[in-house]
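User: I'll paste a sequence; please echo it back and then give the predicted structure.

Assistant: Echoing your sequence first, then the prediction.
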Amino acid sequence: MGSLVSLIRRNIKDIHYVYNTLVSVNFMGTLLAIAVIALTLTIPSIFYVFLQNFKESTSDLTIGRNITVYLKSDVDSAVAFQIKDDLESDVRIKSAELITKDEGLKSFAASLGINENDVLSNSENPLPHAVVILPSEDVESSTENLELLVKEIKNNRYVDLVRVDRDWFKKINSVTDAMRYITVVIASILLFSLILTLVNTVSNRVLLHRNEIEVMKLVGATDGYIIGPYVYLGMWLGVLGCFVSWWLGTIVIFTTERYLNHIAEVYGAHIIFRGMNFHELMIMFAVSTVMCMIVSFISAKSSINGIRPQ
């Protein structure tokens, strides 16, 4: 128990020591490292937030996303309602709405600006029942899933025609795929620059304390004991860099929202941007901190192993 308390006290002391060192030693180098970490996290996180908001915005649009199922002309209303209920119970379908032949006729007559009786001219209603379905996100994001769903619906003996705007799905999927690819590419490039900056920062700190490290090795200190403060240095850089990234990202996102709404107002729309939620923010802090600690550990271990007491 006593050794555990001693270990905790030592770690707290190291964390406090490293925090003070961030301000007092090589202040500009520390600011540069924090800036690089913040930039590395900010740009991909902004793309991620834009992608999430884009998906949420397009999910509210129904034009082009609907699949219209036209039933055969001899299908009565009872069977049509049963088909609608069967489709709606499918987990791949978000919603289903039945448009009866009478409702279709009224809508058609209204679009022409005439009475529905004038359209019929004492003949039977030639329009079929139709079911308008909205597929789930899993179906929308996969062309194969969409094709499979359409094929299964067509196999129904009561279905005459299935109309789906495949171009809409292709456009939405191509935009989201492009945004994902750009995010990954930019994040990879910035991650490489982050690793180089951290390696340079930690290596310089090790060289700055070279004489102290030599003395510590002479009195029997292990490499693990010496490396500890540099790992905490990476921890502080990761935490502070992520905090700056969150602050910058929030400013960029909500500033952009105002300008995008100026454009959206022309089309009678309004955009509400959602930033990162608490769960996503905690993941970003955890990834930033752990990544910086790992890079700092590897860099410090490599530099300290090269120091031999004279």
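The two ends are 38 Å apart (CA to CA). The first strand starts at residue 67 and ends at 71.
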